[in-house]
């Protein structure tokens, strides 16, 4: 068995060495489907399909004439992922928004792109907009988006959706929406700088209720023939919009750490899911960590090494997906980009030029023995006709083609 593992790891490095050129081989992506490459394409995409009022997104997607939704659908039709996590897609219990998106946008070819069908999906409630009953921002008032379990104007804002061409084992899905932050050993609980006590930004009563996930953490098993791949989906809070206590930065760090602990055989024992089952991922299980993690390995406002927790997690492979449009945008926009340490070819989000600049915050990270064949970021250069699609969201779709062994 030891010799087999060495061969698998060596094969992974050989494949990784050829990823970057393959990812840049086509600016249009029109024919770059995973099935043609003998693999399964996993993707993540922060769609920015969030709205200010509950029910607004469902109402907009009830007809096929929403310009932003049309562009989001076209990106999916051009890149054609087999399994994709959509972040910032407002959740509604009726499923009306998702039904409208699939029927009125994905099922209709956008700008001559071929329609795409996802027979399987998973979505569930998230913590955004759910009242906590506590003064979480310490402004003396209880209520509002800052005092919800996750920042949001209403329950379900900034939700998540998994779309799949392959069956989802819904009976085996694990959700961790209600896992409490203080139940993570060594949690980076924020400190009130105005008091001598440590880690006391939140009151004991607040900590007794406060959840770790700003949205949720989901373990969604995808059935790929005889194999099962666990899609580990999340969308940690941005590490900003707070004060010197850095409550959002520390929460972001620990939301990312959750997956690093979950996939490690010796570190996930403390974890419990929403129905009370304890423990992390079974040893040897195949997984893909996906989502907008709101953390760049080198730049931005996140706690140092927050992203590296999953980039260097147990059995994780970083395919380092690239684009041609990222470096071009960094050079043209300047500002904070000029002082960044990270490779702009790996950027996945087009943020404010002054601060924080463009960052790598969206990830598709497979585990051994899965083998990445190709990977990319949908960020065409400015002269490409498809560059117009980058107006739909400040994030770019990230994809990785995997050989499922």
UniProtKB/TrEMBL annotation:
Domain Endonuclease/exonuclease/phosphatase: 44-395
Alphabetic keyword roster: Endonuclease, Exonuclease, Hydrolase, Nuclease, Signal
GO molecular function terms listed in the Swiss-Prot or TrEMBL record: endonuclease activity; exonuclease activity
InterPro entries, sorted: Endo/exonu/phosph_ase_sf, Endo/exonuclease/phosphatase
Residue span of region Disordered: 319-354
Pfam families: Exo_endo_phos
Transmembrane segments: none
Endpoints of the signal sequence: 1-25
Protein name: Endonuclease/exonuclease/phosphatase family protein
Organism name: Tamaricihabitans halophyticus
